[in-house]
User: What shape does this take?
Amino acid sequence: MLSRTADNLFWMCRYTERAENTARMLDVNLQMSLLPQDAQTREGSWLGVLRISELQGLYLQKYASISPHDVLEYMVRDPENPSSIFSCMRSARENARAVRGSLTTEVWETYNTTWLELLKHLHTGLLERNPGEFFEWVKFRSHLARGVTIGTMLQDEALYFLRIGMHLERADNTARMLDVKFHERDGNGQESRAEPADADALQSEFYRWSALLSSVSGLEIYRKVYRDVITPDRVAELLILHGDMPRSLLASMRAVADDLARVSNQRSTETERRAGMLCAELQYGRVEDILASGLHQYLDHFLDRINDLGNRISQDFLVPLSA
Assistant: This one.
């Protein structure tokens, strides 16, 4: 497969996954903002959305303060924000158009229709009238694109590069959300071990971790796996080490390692080795050890390794060889 084609396929799926993840974060944050909370907590929650995408600096260059309206505008429709839903869907559609010949008709039509419908929804004000419905639409279009791709594409290198992009982006997003949500109120992460002081604090903690699980479609899965109250340690275990949880770090990295092996070439040995090592560490890791060594440090190191893998995949497969 041509490197340019592989690059377009990789980023097409990665941008779609990013748009879905952004919609998930914004939707849950909007729902949480309806609960009773002081102004500082509300502002910190919306700042957390920006921190997950490392956009707080760019946002504050454009807006004077943190407000739900401005964060929604910036993260949904701002064309200058590379991680906004608008920018991600535009980039996904452009990448799909560039490799139209490598996609089935159904896949191309799904991406093209999604882009056209997005323009319509933003123009007619769906976001302002019913933001929940808009975010559900974004998630549904991502699910539809994923299902159509799996259901109609030949299982060859094109599909493997699509899946590598999707799962790499998913692992990155899950790690970022965990890191930010575990440290919204205490930079050293020790709050996850502390007992809530009273009934109100206990209720706040419940909604906090429920929201995190909901943002990755993990609340029902948590109840099936643990059948008990929600605790921070178990949330971390589910989203990091549980291989049957679709959006966990282990499930995502297992998929990346498997698909890298399928597209292996003469230059990718070291990349495959690093992906395999990361997958093995997750498979045989224990949440007690992770928390004891520091969750923030662990996730920060994981994100560094994910970034390194992305760069290596680009060098091994996606960048054309020099003449």
Observations:
- Residues 185-194 have pLDDT under 50 and may be disordered.
- DSSP finds 16 helices and no strands in the chain.
- The two ends are 17 Å apart (CA to CA).
- The first helix runs from residue 3 to 32.
